[in-house]
Specification:
The protein has 118 residues and is mainly alpha-helical. It has one domain. 67% of the residues lie in helices and 0% in strands. The protein is built from four helices and no strands. Helix 1 runs antiparallel to helix 4 and helix 3 packs across helix 4. The longest helix is centred in the last third of the chain and has 27 residues.
């Protein structure tokens, strides 16, 4: 196993983050930004509506997926599972925000780990 770069947390720190914060954060991001079936207007009902899709994105993000790959995964979910579309612009916006959110989290986690906070 190669050591993490200064902007990458260790696997143990990242695992704990996904368990404690990341999964729920990604679910909420999909709920409020992507939301192809429009359930966010009924908050807090169905707030876990996109948990399955968040779980599918986690390994992609951890492997370094960019917005194109995330967008493709969201489109596939819309076409295969949901049978509704968020629309191209909204899907792209969601994909970019997911990648930005994850990148910012990785930088923060790595800094916290270097500082001994994690």
């Amino acid at each position: 196993m190669t050591p993490p770069t200064p902007q990458e947390p260790s696997a143990a720190v990242e695992d704990a983050w996904w368990r404690d914060e990341g999964r729920e954060g990604l679910e909420q991001l999909l709920y409020w930004v992507w939301d192809p079936i429009g359930v966010s207007s009924a908050y807090p009902d169905a707030r876990d509506e996109y948990a399955t899709y968040a779980a599918r994105l986690e390994p992609l993000l951890r492997a370094g997926a960019g917005a194109d790959e995330v967008e493709r995964s969201l489109r596939e979910a819309e076409e295969r599972d949901i049978e509704a579309s968020a629309g191209d612009a909204r899907r792209r916006d969601a994909a970019e925000r997911v990648v930005d959110w994850y990148g910012a989290a990785a930088i923060r986690l790595a800094a916290e780990e270097r500082a001994g906070w994690r």
